[in-house]
Specification:
With 97 residues, this protein is an alpha+beta fold. The chain has helices at 40-50, 65-74; strands at residues 6-11, 19-23, 30-36, 58-63, 79-85, 90-95. It has 2 helices and 6 strands; from the N terminus they run βββαβαββ.
Length: 97
């Protein structure tokens, strides 16, 4: 699933990526999952549907699997949220080890 080019949404202002923050059921800890799209047009659909007022401050970047792994490690994300339907949105969360 993540063996090809993926697309991320990133803030042009501070360089932060779009993430989902989920509170753990076991503790009060909040974990972050990097939202990943399989195509650039899906990321654009997500922005147009859910972040239209911020669209001028967001950009879409393509990343290879190696770059994705590096981003996950660098920013200490728990895993990825693979966006399967940007309009609803339907997201599969995966912890990567």
């Amino acid at each position: 699933m993540l063996s090809q080019i993926s697309y991320l949404i990133r803030s042009q202002k501070d360089g932060k990526h779009l993430v989902a923050r989920i509170q753990s059921e076991d503790s009060a800890e909040t974990v972050s999952y990097l939202l990943v799209f399989k195509a650039d047009y899906e990321a654009l659909s997500y922005i147009n549907t859910h972040g239209q007022s911020m669209s001028d401050r967001l950009s879409i970047e393509s990343v290879s699997p190696i770059q994705l792994k590096s981003i996950l490690q660098r920013w200490n994300y728990q895993g990825v949220g693979y966006v399967e339907d940007p309009l609803i949105p339907e997201i599969k969360f995966m912890i990567l080890g």
